[in-house]
Amino acid sequence: MTAFLNGQYLPLAEAKISPLDRGFLFGDGGYEVIPVYSRRPFRLDEHLRRLQTTLDGIRLPNPHSAAEWKDIVLHLVARADFEDQSVYIEVTRGADTKRDQAFPVGVAPTVFAFTSPLSTPTPAQRESGIAVISAADIRWGRCDLKAVALLANVLMRQMAVDAGCAETIMLRDGYLTEGAASNIFVVQDGILLAPPKDHRMLPGITYDVVLELAARHGMPYEVRPIAESELRAADELWMTSSTREVLAITTLDGEPVGKGTEAGKPGPMSRRMYDWYCAFRDEVMRRADA
After folding, report:
1. Whole-angstrom Cα distance, residue 250 to residue 258?
2. pLDDT > 90? residue 219
3. What is the mean pLDDT of the chain?
4. What stretches of 62-180 show up as alpha helix (H) in DSSP?
5. What is the pLDDT of residue 273?
6. DSSP string covering 239-254, please?
7. What percent of the chain has pLDDT over 90?
8. Does residue 287 surpass a pLDDT of 90?
9. Closest by Cα among 169, 168, 146 to 157
10. pLDDT level of residue 288 (50, 70, 90 thresholds)
11. SS3 state of residue 172
12. What is the H or E stretch that residue 134 is in?
């Protein structure tokens, strides 16, 4: 696989950074993940804007313009052997000659990117939904920034793996925030509920698409704080992310999601939203070809 590192395209195995890189020492950097379908990046402008927001938030000047980033992404996509891809971008504050928490002076940022095959849910997962667990949200106070310091998310994800589940849903002060690597939606009494975009959650690109599609198709929705009690009483739960798209959650902490004979099964609104998402994605790809 090909990587991009500080202006050079080279085999991924040959990409090397200094052990004094601040991303390695302090988690001092930002990142972005961009899905690619049939070699066409999906919502590339929106992903690059979110990267800019992250870099602004950590006071790290963006080393490339949007046009330059697009060129890097498209070059990597063209060099890959696979059609559907996931492009990873990381920018750190670079490598100084010493370990000091204060920002270094005169140090160039480290810019790294590579692409790998896009891994989306299997047909079996689509059909049955996934199981998740819940845990207290122990992360720092700026979860709206896509920073590379992800140890708390790593621990949450491993909790899910240890429990044989696909994700951990996080709760802070009695309210839903998000998943370890996803946004979470709740359906109650025919209304789609979404947590508000604030410092406690990452503003997902797919999160935005879901709300746009709900508005376009007349699906009732509310953006507001969601109490833990509402999460546990939900008729449907969904996970969304750039790689998992829209995926039904059918078991929470060992209990089936929903009520009656349909409990523990993907609900009708999740199926509808996934169909709308696929149609929208294909529409975007067709426009890219025009």
Report:
1. 8
2. yes
3. 95
4. 66-79, 123-128, 151-162
5. 97
6. EEETTTEEEEEEEETT
7. 94
8. no
9. 168
10. low
11. strand
12. strand 130-136
- Non-local (6+) Cβ contacts of 96 within 8 A are 20, 22, 104, 107
Closest by CA position to 96, among listed 19, 170, 165: 19
> In whole angstroms, what is the distance from residue 156 CA to residue 152 CA?
6
* pLDDT at residue 286 in the model: 75
Measure the CA–CA gap between 116 and 175, rounded to whole angstroms.
35
Contact call for residues 108 and 25 (beta carbons, < 8 A):
no
178: its two tokens: 């998000």
Q: Which of 16, 70, 98, 146 is catalytic?
A: 146
Strands 191-194 and 183-188: antiparallel
Cα atoms in the Cβ-side hemisphere of radius 13 Å centred on 68: 9
Q: 119-152: string of b/e by CB count within 10 Å (b at 16+)?
A: ebbeeebbeebbbbbbeebebeeebbbbbbbbee
Write the DSSP symbol of residue 112.
E
Q: What is the dihedral of CA 215, 216, 220, 221, to 10 degrees?
A: -30
Whether 259 sits among the annotated catalytic residues: the reply is: no
Q: What are phi and psi of 206, to 5 degrees?
A: -70, -35
